[in-house]
Structures are given as C-alpha cells and as structure tokens.
Amino acid sequence: MRRYSIAGLLGLFGIFSLLVSCGRGGEIHSMPETQKEIVLIVKSKEGEFWNTVKMGAEAAATEFNVKLIFDGTTDEADVKSQIDLVNKYLAYGTNGLILAANDYTKLAPSVAKADRLGVPVVTIESEVNSPEVRSFIGIDNYEAGRQAALKMKELTDSKGRFIILNFVKGSRNAEQREKGIRDEWAATPGMQVVESAYCNSDSTRCGELTKELLDKHSDIDGILALNAAASIGAAEQLRSMQRDGEIKLVAFDNTPEELEWLQEGIIQATLIQNPFSMGYLGVKTAVEAMNRQSVPKKIDTGTKVIDAENMFWSDNQKMLFPFVQ
Amino acid sequence: MRGLQFRLYRFKSIQFLIAASFTIMTVLVVFFVSLVLYNKFNRTAENNTSLGNQQVIYQVAANLEYYIRSMTTVFTSVEAQIKSSGALPNEMLNERLDTIFHTREDLVTIGLFTETGQRMTSLPSADMRSNTHLTSQNWFRSAIENPNHLSFSVPHVQNLFKGKYKWVVSMSKGIKLKTANGQEINAVLLVDANFKLIDDLSRSVKLGQKGYAYIIDDSAGNIIYHPQQQLIYAGLKYENVEQALKYTYGSYLDGSTGENRLITIQTVNNVGWKIVGVSYMDEIVTTRKEISTFLLWLLLFVMAFVLLITLYMSAKISQPIKRLEKSMQLVERGNFDIHIPIRRDDEVGRLSRRFNLMVNRIRELMNQNIHEQEAKRKSELEVLQSQIHPHFLYNTLNSVVRLAGTGKNEDVITMITSLSRFFRISLSKGEHFISVADELEHIRNYLIIQKMRYKNKFEYAIEADEEALRCRTLKLVLQPLVENAIYHGIEPSADEGFITISARVLEGKLCLQVKDDGLGISPDKLKDLLTDPPAQHEGGTGIGLRNVHERIRLNYGEEYGLQIESEREEGTTVSVWLPCLQEGGEI
C-alpha cells in the first residue's frame, strides 16, 4: 500500500505545481475593464454652469467607476438636435442616460424609448414630462422664484414696481420661477409686477428688451432677471444707462460677468444653484438606477442667495468660483 | 430497504473510512494552508498599500514644501527690494518689482498697502474694484496682528483688481516703511501666488482608482483643498478632519464615512498644512476577492483530486478484503468447495491462505464426520435388527407349549423346526448379505410359524424368478414387512387373508414384493410412513418399515428403498427395490 500513497503524493504534488503555474499565467490577463457607460446630455456644451455640472459628474464617475460621455446641444432652444443626440447615443448603446432637457414635453418620447431599451433616464436641472424618468435632480424653481422675490422685497422695503425678465416662453423652469415670484408677492400689495417679458436666453436681446421696457415704464424700482442671459443683458443695459444701483437687479446664476457686477454693485443679489451637485448626484443616481436600486423620484439640490456682502465668504467662494485659474 | 442496507454497508466499509478520512484530512490541511496564505496576503496587501500611500503623500508634501520655500524666497527678495529702495512712490522700485513679477508666472499680485488699506504700490497696476473688503480679509488682518511674521493664507479668490477672479494663496507681512518726509509707517506687503500649481499638484495624486489627497489647515482644521470641495459644501460628502488633526504623520483606518478607508497623513512644514491621503480599502478587497476565488477553486480541485486518488487507493486496499468476505459468506451458506486465489504476499494474501487452509480442514472434518455417522447408524440399525423380537419368540414358544399340551406333536415339530430354520438364517454366520433364496426361505419359515399361531387366518404364496433367486440381498428385509402385513393388514380384518411374496428382476433392479389383501393404509398415514420423524403409529413400533428403508439406502444409495402402495379395504403392496447383485458379487 505504501507504493500507492507515495505515487498519490507525487501526483498531488505534480498537480499542485501545475495549478500554481497555471494561476500565475492567468493573472496577467485578469482585471478585465468592465466599466459601464453613462451619457450626460446637457443643454449647452459651453458655459460655466454646464462645465461645473460636468465636473461634478466626472467626480462621481471616478468614484463609482463608470465611463462618462459628456455631450450637448450648442443652443438651449434646439430641441430637435437634442432628440437626435439622445437617439444617437441610444443607438450606440449606453447603460445610463442623464438628461438636461431642452423641452418639458418634446423629450418625453425619447425618454420612453430609452426606458424600453432598458436604459434608465435621470433628468437634471430641467424636468421631462414622462413617468419613465427615474429621478429628477435640480432646484425647486418655484421656491427659487420665491426666494428671489423675497430678496427683492427686502431690497426695496416692500414697495415698488417691477419688471420680470424671463427666458423662454413655455419653459417649465421659467413658468415655475415666475409663479413663485408672483405668489410670494400676492400678499404684499406694495410689490407690483408691471410687466413680464421673454428674451429667449439671448443676452443681447435681453439688453434691448430691458431698454424698451424701461423706456415704456418710467418709474421702475427693480428688475428680476430669471436666468444668466437675462441677468447679463439687464445688468449691461443698466450700466450703460447709468441707472445701476437706482434700479435694483436680482439675478440668477453665477457667470463670471454676473459676479463681477455683483461686486461692483450693479447686481444686488443673485440666486445660485449648485451645478456641481447636479452633475455628481445625476451620475450617482443613474448608477444606482442601473444597479436596480430604488432611487428617490426627486432630489432638491437647493439654492442660495448671494449678495456683495457674502460673496467672498469662504464657503461661498468655492460655490461661486468653481474653477481654479 | 435494500438500498438502505446497501448504503449502510457502504458507509461501514473500510474503503469509505479510508477515503473519507484521507479526504477530510487533506482538505482540512489545504483549507488551513489557504487560510494562512490568504491572511498573509491580506496583511501584505494592506501594508503595501499603506506604505505606497505614505510614499506618495510624503512626495507631495516634499514638493509642496519646496514650492513654499521658493515662494518665501520670492517674498523675501520683494521685501528686501522695498526696504532698500527710498521713499515711495519710487519709479526704480516699480521697475525692479516688475522684473521679479515677470520672472515667475505663478505670481498674481504684489501689493503694498497702508494700515488703513490704501494702495501704495501694486502689480498689476490695474484699477481696484469696489467692495473689496480689503482690511477685513484674512491676510491683511493677520499681517496687522502679527507684524514681522510671514503668514500664509488659505486659498481664496483675489478680488482686488479688475480682470479675472483668481484663486490664490496670499503671503503677507506687516513691515515698517519710511515715507518721503522721514516718517515711519506701518504697511502690509502682499504677494499672491496662483493656487493652480498647488491644485494641479494635489489633483494629480492618485491613490488607487478612487483615492485622492486633500489638504487641511493645521490650526483650525479648515479644508484648504479638496478635489470634491463642492460635495463637501453641499453636504454630500464628509471628511473626518478631527481625527486627521491628531496625527502629524502616519496612517490609520477610518470607517466614519461608512466606507473603510486608509488615511495617510503628512504635515507640510512652514505653512502648517497637512496633506491627507485617502484610499479605499474595497480596492484592496477586489484583489482579495480574486485571491479568495482562486483559493476556493484550488480547494475544490484538490478535493476532487484527493477524492479520486483516495477512492482508487482505498479500493485497492479493501478489494481483497471484500473478496475474502464474499468467500466467507459462501462458506457460511455451506459451500466448502472454495479456494481463494492468492494474488499478493501481503496481510490479505496471508489471511486468504490461512482461510483456504481452514476451509480445507473443515471440509475434511465434515466428510470424516459423515462417514462416521453413517457407520454408526448402520451398526445401530443392525443391532436393532438382530434383537429379533423377543416378543415373537415368547409368543411362538407359548404356542408350542399350547400345542404340546393338546398333544399335537406333529404341529409342535413343524413349529420348532421352522423356528430353528428361522433363527439359523437370521444369524447366518454373522453375514449381512444373503441370497434371495435364503431370504425367501427365512420368510417362509416365519410365515409357517405365524400361520400356525393365527390358526390359518391367512394363506400365503411365494413366487420368485430364477434370476431373482440368484441375487443377493440385505438379510431380514422382508420379515418386518410381512409382520406388518399380518399385524396391521390381516389380523384386524374379519376375513381370511392372503399374502403374496414375490421376487423379480425388473429393469435391472431386484424387486421384492409383499402383497396382502388386508385393510390397507389410509392415505395420510401412508405419506408419513417412510419419512422422519417417527410418528406414533397406533399399534406398531413404527420402526420396522423405516428401519428397512434406511438400511437399504445406507447400504445401496438413495435410489433404492421401499415403495408402498395401498388402498383401503383392498390391501397393501410393499415393494423393496434393491440392486441386482449376482451371487458372489460384493459391494
């Protein structure tokens, strides 16, 4: 019997060494790259706001080990191009889609199509009217409107005549913001909205419109500009008319121009969103949806009112100036 | 039931025991070795990560320190230039500062301010913005509070001059200056360095796939730089700064953020900053998982391999034992004609040989025993036979006395003569075998006596072939049969009986027949007559028939013996089958 055990041990030893050598060979081509892919389609590829969104998304992509593709239209009003973009990436095959929609209703079929293909869709900044959207990440635009209104009320001692400079007619965000303002002022008879106008996210047009409106109504106490383009147009116009300071301006967003005018006192206050969080949470939520985890239907990233006083506070600096130059 | 038995048998087998114990032992050993290897690997991986992180962070800290030293040098030379130059404003000083300013592209601002925040000179010389809150800025305050001490600010956005907002680290110092009219005033010297360089340096730190480094302020614990700054301000991320503040350098494991992270800390001298490296343990866990799956496969493989080997080996060991066991089972069932082939000269081989010897011995003993038993039985039966019924003798003698009493002398003579002949053949010189003729003579004398005793209650006839007469037979086979015929067939019957004795050769066999026309035997009694055990027959010893039957079979073999045919009220025929052995022939 001894013969057998020796033979057996020898065989065992042989197999062991074989296995060890096999294992060593196998380790070279281990660690396959099985990164999932997420496409982030925004309203505009350029601009501070969307770049910050991209930064946040990239931070999350690194953290959750996914591949991020950033794309978007050049014009915020170009709905057709955005639909084409969505279709293109769906045709390429992607695991998740994050969308900042150019239109509340027209993107709904694209979202439904993505959902049919098993691609979870998360919207950021602007909502899409589709039950297939897993989650919306952005600010509460109604609440933002109310905050802007409140700030204006504070600046003008609850009394005055105001112009609302809105961006795109029919845009849900625009409507919500304006509704917030009007509701906030409804109980204060001193606060009067003289006119609200749309300047289609074009700062030049917004400037012209500001001039037209100021010429039309003589005794305006303040302007509420509800997005970056409107804010820039209005501020530029006020400065060139040398009526800055006299007419209070409450703006939205934090472009470098707006910040400069905020320090100079042309803009009295601006409402900032947190685009970094939108990008980060967008990717995070999309990853969770891809992993079949339940995700909240709505995530509020919050807004903040910034004025010349608090704009250089340490915390706010990092929100207002996201890029190190 | 059968399956269960089979299984039980399998589990109790030596093969199973060997296979199971050997497999379990090997698997346990491999398992423990794997466990030890795994733990060792784990620790090494952790140590390596920790060591690697420390090196990276140390390198970053060294770079940062070097950079800060070089900035300090710049600051000192600027300060020296200002002090060495005359009263302000001074064209030559501006030129010199401009030279310094342009040699380093990471310089953003050089500025000299009075205690009240008035600009004395500055580069760039662009317009200042409004709302700068200059005197309340940190760098200004610390310069006023600690004059003659170079202080570093945390990174902030420089908002003094028109143009781009830039992130800078401000170096400031409160200095004393002489004005044109000889007055000494306090001033604040500011040199801003672009933060981009530090940012790039920190951003390039990669600790594993997800790991990163951030910088905290040693005194207040403020986060100076963090790659995910916005997340921290938005409350989406949390860094356990308090814990990091306790260390000057080194590393520890931190689970406060919900994930296991390895924190590595290194302090940057001069500025009082700490670089904190963060790497995620689950990245080590990934490689750990790989190793554990590898070890698992190894374990499975070894298990399968060992199982095969041990099954083979245990079969090799236990097979001869099983063969031996099977042979023993056969012996147990009574088959002694077994010989186990011996294949090897090991324990089982030796056992088999012993077993073979034993079975042989048993076989011999059994045969011997059978012979002895047969011999004993024969002699017993012969003894029985030779005790020729004292009862018969007594009866006969009684009859003789009676005949003598009544004066029937001729009958007496016949009876006595017959009796003497009867006994002469009974004894027949101690021979066991006699001729059929003698046997028939013997039975004739017996019948003569019995006929006289029963007062002619029956008649008889004796017939024999010439050939049959020459045959030899076991002696005294007919007498018990005739006795039975008289006692059980004729005597109870009311009528006169007739007994026929015949001897013939049929198909090469000798057939002796005793036939009566008496009462006959009932069928149930008939079938028991020749078989054991001796039942209690009414009125008979029961020995007679069986005795004869057994004696014949013991002497001649199983195919010979008695054959009884009977019918109620018709009579009984008992045939005695014997081999036809001619006179002079011996068995």
TrEMBL record, chain A:
Name the UniProt record assigns to this protein: Substrate-binding domain-containing protein
Query: Domain Periplasmic binding protein: where?
Result: 38-291
Chief localization: other
What CDD domains does UniProt report for this protein, alphabetically?
PBP1_ABC_sugar_binding-like
Species assigned in the record: Cohnella silvisoli
**InterPro entries in alphabetical order:** Peripla_BP_I, SBP_2_dom
According to its UniProt record, where is this protein located? Answer: Cell envelope
Q: Which residues form the signal peptide?
A: none
Q: Which residues form a coiled coil?
A: none
The family this protein is said to belong to: Belongs to the bacterial solute-binding protein 2 family.
Pfam families linked to this entry = Peripla_BP_4
Task: Give the UniProt keywords, A-Z.
Answer: Signal
